[in-house]
């Protein structure tokens, strides 16, 4: 398209912006709230600060509990007294928080309060399902509520700052951290990011309220695109792909007013994120207008040396100049910024800028008014583990379950007869609460066995056999336990364990096999090069299959697995992720039909590892693998179909839904005019049930090649048996925009296709044309 015409279209879009969206409108986020006195106050304070005190504000230390890197902070109390510490993480409870804070506000020269942070990722004491499970609910209100409850508990435990949400788009299930995010889709990822920020910071972003916490958006940026799914690995990506496919969730969280950002470990196009000025300053601050502060990830400044950017003092200078305000744990700023200033490697203005942002963060949190934010043992007792929080996590866990298969209505189970409960995860409590467990106590988690007994009642006979270990690799087993895994290793031979399980299964009416991964096999530094069930679990399932009994798989895992055999041979498969404190009860609710599952996967499940990375919003290529399967010269594999096993957005229900053909309010729309897409969905089965109705768009002709489908809206609806509902989505030219080759955000006139369905594959479509606005 000629450049001039394109420029005109960009203008057309800008002039005709409407605020309609395909998702029922969420309240518009308030920007970070500042009071007019903040600048005056900080100017005054900074005038009194020495260089050392300013640098001290940029230093974040770790105390106690778990560490994920090689550096453990020493002499924390003494360092706080010297004014060398801006914040501390990994410690909580009212007593611990008050103790540290009182050193800062009573024993330092300027009495500047500390910032207290922690990895509150999916709950603080009440553990919710892992974020990938939360996303599978497609329920933004419920997700926001999980963050709200986490904020209530964390704030009552003395915390001000949580290292969440993690919004890294992930298309490669080998990467263990896919479990920490919302999956592969930028649109859904953006909505989840906003919901989490609202939940933590409150709807008006007024962080002076003592029951809020400041969120920290991470990991900026593109961490999820680590090559080969290997953690901390390199990312090399075109700007166009970044803007269209990976950056939207970060951008959405910034627009939602997130108070802080964490830089990622990875290299981006040759420059590690933590030293990347384009990323941390040009994009984040100049283009997106971020006003908060930026902290590094764990020891990431020192790691610049291993990235090959020079020794520690140079690394410190590069990071500060790129836009880092706070150095997590590595103490590189503390050691090197003063000498760097003398050598002229950094300027006073660079240091002042970072110090000011840290003080602003503390001011926004109200710490200068009340450094303790009202924490007390009494308040903590009132807030922690309230019964309604337990009910909320059970509800979210049920909603996060995804029914992947259900032949001959194997599920729901009857509350009568006998169940052979088999598998290494059947009795586990520790695994249910997943990784990043904050202050969660796994001993309070309800195991699947406990849940089945409680929900099934006395008429259900449950017998148990372990059947297999989660892994037979002793080295891995020990490593996982060293990280708090609580894995049990049964020393019997695999054959013996399988034999026992088969005997138990033969006596029962139905087999429920709880298989998957341990919590520690996912999360940070938990990449896997094989996506099958680990250890002897598949062999166990094969033996159970031979009994001829109905075989129900309850999967607990943190990533898409390759489940081709399981899909062909199990009668029913329920994906439950790591479901949180109430996991066992929630899964039992689903298995016995007290709750009709409605979750949908937010990452594509491959048939085979070789298909990875696999995602629904791919490009068409010049040789799409459609039509004649004997035509060899197509974008396909010789040994496996190109299609996924379970597509993005997929998930079944105990009932069935019938979709009418989508209808449009017009077949041609002018730039800037909204378009309505309507569809009638009917519950045609025997249960009331919820359905996530999904709307996708394809831009058929563009100045750049465009994805075959892009999610642009969804609605989750409850339909009673036999009920029909006509749903309407509103699309605007805003929803049709994308970043073109020059990185202009444009909607281009031409033909589009709209798809509506219950997942990204099973859809019906209708076309429309977008016309340029009059006069252009
Ligand atoms: C992780 C972050 C986490 C930080 C602090 C790092 O290793 O990448 O996600 O917030 O540690 O614990």
TrEMBL record:
SMART domains (UniProt xref): Fn3_like
Localization annotation: Periplasm
Matching InterPro entries: Cellulose_deg_GH3, Fn3-like, GH, Glyco_hydro_3_C, Glyco_hydro_3_C_sf, Glyco_hydro_3_N, Glyco_hydro_3_N_sf, Ig-like_fold
Pfam family, one: Glyco_hydro_3_C
Annotated signal sequence range: 1-22
UniProt keyword RNA-binding, yes or no: no
Domain Fibronectin type III-like: 691-760
Listed EC numbers: 3.2.1.21
Predominant location category: periplasm
GO terms classed as biological process: carbohydrate metabolic process
Keyword presence, Protein transport: no
A GO term, aspect molecular function: beta-glucosidase activity
Keywords, in A-Z order: Glycosidase, Hydrolase, Periplasm, Signal
NCBIfam families per the UniProt record, alphabetical: PRK15098.1
Name this polypeptide is given: Periplasmic beta-glucosidase
């Amino acid at each position: 398209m000629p450049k001039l015409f394109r420029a005109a279209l960009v203008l057309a879009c800008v002039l005709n912006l409407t605020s309609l969206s395909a998702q029922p409108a969420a309240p518009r986020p308030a920007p970070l709230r500042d009071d007019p006195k903040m600048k005056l106050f900080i100017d005054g304070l900074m005038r009194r600060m020495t260089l050392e005190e300013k640098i001290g504000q940029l230093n974040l230390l770790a105390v106690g509990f778990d560490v994920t890197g090689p550096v453990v902070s020493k002499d924390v109390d003494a360092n706080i007294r010297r004014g060398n510490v801006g914040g501390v993480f990994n410690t909580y409870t009212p007593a611990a928080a008050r103790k540290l804070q009182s050193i800062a506000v009573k024993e330092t020269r300027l009495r500047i309060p500390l910032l207290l942070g922690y990895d509150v990722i999916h709950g603080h004491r009440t553990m919710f399902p892992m974020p990938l499970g939360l996303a599978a609910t497609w329920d933004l209100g419920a997700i926001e509520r999980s963050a709200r409850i986490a904020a209530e508990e964390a704030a009552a435990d003395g915390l001000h700052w949580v290292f969440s949400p993690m919004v890294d788009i992930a298309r490669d299930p080998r990467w263990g951290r896919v479990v920490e995010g919302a999956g592969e889709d930028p649109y859904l990822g953006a909505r989840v990011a906003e919901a989490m920020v609202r939940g933590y910071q409150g709807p008006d972003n007024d962080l002076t309220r003592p029951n809020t916490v400041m969120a920290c958006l991470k990991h900026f940026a593109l961490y999820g695109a680590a090559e080969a799914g290997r953690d901390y690995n390199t990312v090399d990506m075109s700007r166009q792909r970044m803007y269209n496919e990976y950056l939207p969730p970060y951008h959405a969280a910034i627009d939602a007013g997130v108070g802080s950002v964490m830089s990622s470990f990875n290299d981006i196009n040759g420059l590690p994120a933590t030293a990347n000025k384009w990323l941390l300053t040009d994009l984040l601050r100049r283009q997106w207008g971020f006003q908060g502060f930026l902290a590094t990830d764990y020891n990431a400044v020192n790691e610049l040396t291993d990235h090959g950017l020079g020794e520690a003092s140079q690394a410190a200078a590069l990071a500060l100049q790129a836009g880092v305000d706070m150095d997590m744990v590595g103490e590189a700023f503390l050691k090197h910024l003063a000498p760097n200033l003398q050598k002229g490697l950094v300027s006073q203005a660079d240091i002042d800028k970072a110090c000011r942002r840290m003080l602003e963060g503390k001011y926004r949190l109200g710490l200068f008014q009340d450094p303790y934010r009202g924490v007390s043992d009494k308040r903590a007792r009132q807030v922690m583990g309230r019964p309604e929080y337990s009910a909320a996590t059970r509800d979210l866990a049920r909603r996060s379950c995804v029914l992947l298969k259900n032949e001959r209505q194997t599920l729901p189970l009857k509350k009568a007869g006998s169940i052979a409960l088999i598998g290494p995860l059947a009795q586990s409590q520790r695994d249910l609460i997943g990784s990043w467990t904050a202050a969660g106590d796994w001993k309070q988690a309800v195991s699947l066995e406990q849940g089945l007994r409680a929900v099934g009642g006395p008429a259900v006979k449950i017998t148990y056999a372990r059947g297999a270990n989660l892994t037979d690799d002793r080295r891995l087993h020990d490593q996982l336990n060293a990280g708090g895994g609580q894995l049990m290793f049964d020393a019997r031979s695999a054959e013996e364990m399988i034999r026992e399980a088969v005997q138990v299964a033969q006596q029962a009416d139905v087999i429920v096999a709880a298989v998957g991964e341990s919590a520690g096999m996912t999360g940070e530094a938990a990449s896997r090069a094989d996506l099958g069930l680990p250890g002897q679990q598949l062999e166990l399932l094969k033996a159970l299959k031979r009994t001829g009994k109905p075989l129900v798989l309850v999967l607990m895992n943190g990533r898409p697995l390759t489940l081709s055999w399981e899909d062909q041979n199990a009668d029913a498969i329920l994906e439950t992720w790591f479901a949180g404190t109430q996991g066992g009860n929630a899964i039992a609710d689903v298995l016995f039909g007290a709750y009709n599952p409605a979750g949908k996967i937010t990452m594509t499940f491959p048939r085979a590892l070789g298909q990875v990375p696999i995602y629904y919003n791919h490009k068409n290529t010049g040789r799409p693998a459609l039509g004649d399967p004997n035509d060899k010269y197509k974008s396909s594999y010789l040994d496996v179909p190109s299609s996924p096993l379970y597509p993005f957005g997929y998930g079944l229900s105990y009932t069935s839904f019938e979709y009418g053909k989508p209808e449009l309010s017009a077949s041609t729309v002018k730039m800037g005019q909204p378009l309505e897409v309507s569809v009638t969905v009917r519950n045609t089965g025997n249960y009331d049930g919820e359905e996530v109705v999904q709307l996708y768009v394809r831009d058929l002709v563009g100045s750049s090649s465009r994805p075959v489908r892009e999610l642009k809206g969804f609605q989750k609806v409850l339909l009673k048996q036999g009920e029909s509902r006509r749903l309407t989505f509103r699309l605007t030219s805003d929803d049709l925009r994308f970043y073109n080759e020059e990185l202009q955000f444009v909607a281009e006139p031409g033909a589009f296709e709209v798809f509506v369905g219950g997942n990204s594959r099973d859809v019906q479509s209708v076309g429309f044309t977008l016309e340029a606005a009059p006069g252009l």
